[in-house]
Design goal:
Layout: E1 2-4, H1 11-23, E2 31-32, H2 33-37, H3 40-48, E3 54-56, H4 61-75, E4 82-84, E5 88-92, E6 95-99, E7 103-105, E8 109-116, H5 127-142, E9 149-156, E10 166-170, H6 177-190, E11 218-223, E12 231-233, H7 236-242, E13 249-254
């Protein structure tokens, strides 16, 4: 990954972003915990086009803030018998999986730090956090540690005076996480041209609809002179059936989109073969 400074920030800011970005490593592993949860296509394209990827330092302020927060927390004073930011490894299906838990009190509680928006936890504890925490638990236990509690310490970047700026959330323990890890590892292996000689980069499965933040195409009944829709339907046929009259009402198509598939959220967007086709098509692995 190369970084640009198109808005001409001071050298100190540019160097900080580059140094923090270069600090990350999955260690001597085939795949990291976050990569395992995410889509094979993104991981493979990042590897394939590593020398061509370019990002301006102004495009990732929230990721930068989160990295700085993690860095200071990893250096904070603590008298507990704890493990902080230590990368651990476990072998699954002949691949090495790595994970670096943020904060683990040996013999008890595993805590992860998150810097995010209120929207992330609006509907409850996020599935991707649950999987990440339980994979960390699995890796710790395979390395001889005992874990009996999972928590996430959330720092909200959009909290106002009425909201809590910090929150400590309990993460449910998933007793079936080993099956998930093995299935996910097999999926990544079968999708990787370096492991599976029967495929190439262009035939790697498209990211799932969930991973693409895919919204559905819907049809809205609009009334003349009114800005908001009278009613919105999942199919055009339903909208046509409801349409009161064509003189004062019309049907507006609200086309679905893959909201994550853009330069703002995906660093390999310009190299993704599926962006040359129909963004609204179904994913090859819709269950994820």
């Amino acid at each position: 990954m190369k970084f640009t400074n198109n808005k001409e920030f001071p050298d100190a800011v540019y160097n900080m972003v580059v140094d923090i970005s270069n600090e990350y490593t999955k260690g001597d592993a085939n795949i990291s915990t976050t990569q395992l949860i995410d889509e094979p296509l993104q991981r493979i394209l990042k590897r394939e086009y590593a020398d061509k990827l370019v990002e301006d330092i102004s495009d990732s302020p929230h990721r930068l803030h989160g990295s700085v927060l993690h860095k200071y927390l990893s250096q904070a004073r603590d008298e507990s018998n704890c493990i902080r930011e230590k990368r651990l490894y476990v072998t699954i299906n002949d691949w090495v999986l790595s994970g670096s838990p943020d904060y683990f009190i040996d013999g008890g509680t595993l805590i992860d730090y998150k810097y995010t928006t209120k929207y992330k936890t609006k509907s409850g504890f996020p599935d991707d956090w649950n999987r990440q925490m339980n994979i960390y638990k699995y890796i710790l236990e395979k390395n001889g540690h005992s874990v009996d509690k999972l928590q996430v310490c959330v720092f909200y970047r959009d909290a106002n005076a009425r909201d809590a700026a910090m929150e400590l959330l309990d993460c449910p323990i998933d007793d079936e996480i080993e099956a998930y890890i093995k299935a996910r590892m097999a999926y990544h292996q079968m999708s990787d041209p370096e492991f599976n000689p029967l495929i190439d980069v262009k035939s790697v499965n498209r990211c799932s609809t969930k991973a693409r933040w895919q919204t559905l195409t819907r049809w809205a009944i609009k009334k003349r002179g009114r800005k908001s829709a009278v009613q919105v339907f999942d199919t055009k046929e339903e909208a046509e059936t409801f349409l009161p009259d064509v003189k004062n009402h019309s049907i507006e198509e609200r086309k679905g989109e893959s909201r994550r598939c853009c330069e703002k959220y995906c660093t390999v967007y310009n190299y993704c073969q599926y962006m040359k086709g129909d963004e609204n098509g179904k994913a090859d692995n819709p269950d994820e």
